[in-house]
Design goal:
The chain has 191 residues and is an alpha/beta fold. The protein is 26% helix and 28% strand. It has a domain of 127 residues: Rossmann fold (3-Layer(aba) Sandwich). Helix 4 links the parallel strand 3 and strand 4. Belongs to the purine/pyrimidine phosphoribosyltransferase family. PyrE subfamily.
């Protein structure tokens, strides 16, 4: 039996890939976490969410926000583990910010938790934080399934939790990518 919350678990469901990849940030990497392969299997996702929920059980918030697309399913699964919790999502605008549409609103002073599938640079999560702040609400904490930031740290002063931390996975600007220089074909796994 493969333990949930591990790299082996991700490899088993096809969510841990190695090659030459274009990340959402525009950077390149030799490692990609296609967490949709995990979230498509509720019975495999649920133990990850239970671990994250256990880490965050003392965080005071009743609204869970997931960034579209990767954060929607984990945010919903996380919210389903608590009573009196709602879940909404933020999505990209035409100007590459994150916004709330579909009638989603936050009240001034409302506390939220942001749940995302993976963190690389934190730029998507920061855009969601900005969208939350724009409505006068507060981010109490951020949780991810996988933290693949280069040093395992995050660029903000809000409590951060992750089920699996994988520091040291390199990313490169396209012009500095050694895989491009060696002619390794670039893959876009989310397509």
């Amino acid at each position: 039996m493969i333990e949930a919350g591990t790299l082996e678990d991700l490899r088993d469901v096809g969510a841990y890939l190695q090659g030459h990849f274009l990340l959402t940030t525009g950077r390149h990497s030799d490692t990609f976490f296609l967490l949709a392969r995990l979230t498509e299997r509720p019975h495999r996702l649920q133990p990850w969410i239970a671990r994250l929920h256990e880490q965050m059980e003392n965080i005071d918030a009743h609204t869970i926000v997931g960034p579209a697309m990767g954060g929607i399913i984990p945010a919903y699964a996380f919210a389903a583990m608590a009573d009196d919790t709602r879940v909404i999502f933020a999505e990209k605008s035409e100007t590459d910010t994150m916004v709330f549409r579909r009638g989603f609103r936050l009240e001034p002073g409302e506390r939220v938790i942001i749940i995302e599938d993976a963190l690389t640079t934190g730029s998507s999560i920061k855009k969601v934080m900005d969208a939350v702040a724009e409505q006068g609400a507060w981010v109490s904490a951020v949780g991810t399934l996988v933290n693949r930031s280069s040093d395992g740290k995050v660029p903000w002063n809000i409590p951060f939790f992750s089920v699996l931390t994988m520091p040291g996975i390199e990313t490169w600007l396209p012009e500095n990518c050694p895989l491009c220089r060696h002619g390794v074909p670039l893959s876009r796994p989310k397509r």
